[in-house]
Amino acid sequence: MSLLRLIRVERRAYAALIFVVFLLSASVIVLGTARSAHAQSQFINLVSYRVTGAPNFTAPGTETFWSAIPWTDVPLAASVAPGGGHTPDLLVKSANDGFNIYMLFRWNDSVGPSYDAATEMYESTNGTLLTLNPANTANVTQLFYNSTYYYPDRVAMLWFVGSAATRQQSPAMMLGSDGAITGGAANIWHWQSNPTDNDPNDTGFPGGYTNPMGTPIFPDNNESFAEDDYTNTTGFFVVGGSFGAGSPNLDPYADPFIVHAGNYFSTADKTWTVEMVRSLTTSDSSYRVQLATGSTYYAAFAVWNGKLGESSHLKSASQWYTLTISDQTPAAPQVAPATEAGISPILAAAAGLGLLIVGMVIGIAVRQKPEKKEE
């Protein structure tokens, strides 16, 4: 083959190669965009699997049934900036035994656990420190904090209990001037390192809950618990017991310790692990979500990093998820094929075909006819 002919073949091969790469790139863009659009139009569903066993509140997350249930990585974003948004994601699992639901949460806290419960303060425009109240939460974007003055660590799960027509597009869980979320109603399970965590470092435990006579009350065996809250368009309330005028109660005779909890902070990898457990149904259906096997619910999540100045309306919050309470046991862990790890079968096939074509083109380019021998 002459040099000129070889150059022409290589040019045609190069052009074909560029065209194939273009087709592959277009396929990736189109399929990726379609997939993203589909995902955005759907709610990610969490499954609460049926298990046997009992929660271990002294070592949450170590129960054998948890190992068969995969984590769901829930992205979080600032509810209000710059004061919120210090926790980028939250790991979530759920299980049930047919009578109780278990929620397991894990998140990173690189600055370490906080058991402090300082009064929420913010700096006014003239530099004066003022106490935060519901009336000014709409305008406060950052709380006062430093190395010795900070707030408790928290994690919360919001169960939407209103009608679908009142559910807001995003579960901002924002406090308004009256302390309300922006739409609908919700039952919130709200764990706090102070006052609901029974830990020796929490000197304020259990934080002053009282009975209708004003006498302090404690959970059985001083166990940890999650505060049981209710919020709607008129305000934010504690369901059972009394937690002071700042959080008015709805039913002082209701059990304020109905959501049991266990928690553990790992100093090795700087993570909190919190497990919440509650019966599927309760005697009080007015303010507490009632759960049933085979049903699906809207839920959202939030984390507060106390040492970084997060409290009240300043936090890291998720979008809406759905949670289905299933009577199916978790499947045995399986190794997912490559096509399930972020690459669709169609895209994988397209890529394989494209590589085959590229190989053929390259083969044509480098294949040369044998030159005639001179006689």
Number of helices: 2
Write the CATH fold name of the largest domain.
Answer: Immunoglobulin-like
Shape: globular
- What does the radius of gyration come to? 28 Å
CATH architecture of the largest domain: Sandwich
Strand content: 25-35%
Instruction: Tell me the total number of β-strands.
Output: 17
The largest sheet, given as strand count, sense and whether it forms a barrel, is:
10 strands, mixed, barrel
End-to-end CA span: 17 Å
User: Structural class from helices and strands?
Assistant: alpha+beta
Average pLDDT, rounded to a whole number, is 78
Number of domain units: 2
Helix residue percentage = 10-25%
Low-confidence stretches: 2-41, 334-375
Strand line-up of the largest beta sheet: 1-4-5-14-13-10-9-8-15-17
Which CATH class of the largest domain applies here?
Mainly Beta
Description:
By secondary structure, the protein is of the alpha+beta class. The chain folds into 2 domains: 3-39 and 341-366; 44-196 and 262-325, Sandwich (Immunoglobulin-like). The chain is 16% helix and 26% strand. The strands form 2 sheets. Strands 1-4-5-14-13-10-9-8-15-17 form a 10-stranded mixed barrel.
Summed up:
The chain is an alpha+beta fold and 375 residues long.
